[in-house]
Amino acid sequence: MTRSDILIARRFGGVAMMIAAPVEAYRGVGLDAQTDANGDVLYRLMLVHRDADLDIVLAETHGSNEAQAQWMEWSMWFDLTRLAIKDDEWMALETPAAARPRP
Hints:
- There is one protein chain.
- The protein is mainly β.
- It is built from one helix and seven strands, in the order E-E-E-E-E-H-E-E.
- It has one helix at residues 64-78, and strands at residues 5-12, 15-22, 26-35, 41-49, 56-61, 82-86, 89-92.
- The strands form two sheets. It has a five-stranded mixed beta sheet, with helices on one face.
C-alpha cells in the first residue's frame, strides 16, 4: 500500500492473482462500529471502494478516541474523504483537502 496504489492479493477459483487499484478508485476512508462477540464496540477503519470486494480493512480497535484519530490520519494520508455509515450506506462527511477550493 502506498499513497497512490493499493496492491491486493486474492485467490479466485484456486488461482492466485494480484490486483493493483489506484487510491483514486476508492470512495474514502470509512469508520464503522460493530459489537464484537464479547459485547464490546469494535471500530473498523477501512478503505471503501464502490465494489465491496475491494474494500481494505486498515485497522480495528476498541477505543473510540483511537479510532477517530486513526480515521483522520488515514484520511489525510490518502487525501480521501472520511465516510460513515448512515442508513446502511456510506455517507461522506467532508471533502479531502486537495479537492477543496483555495481561498
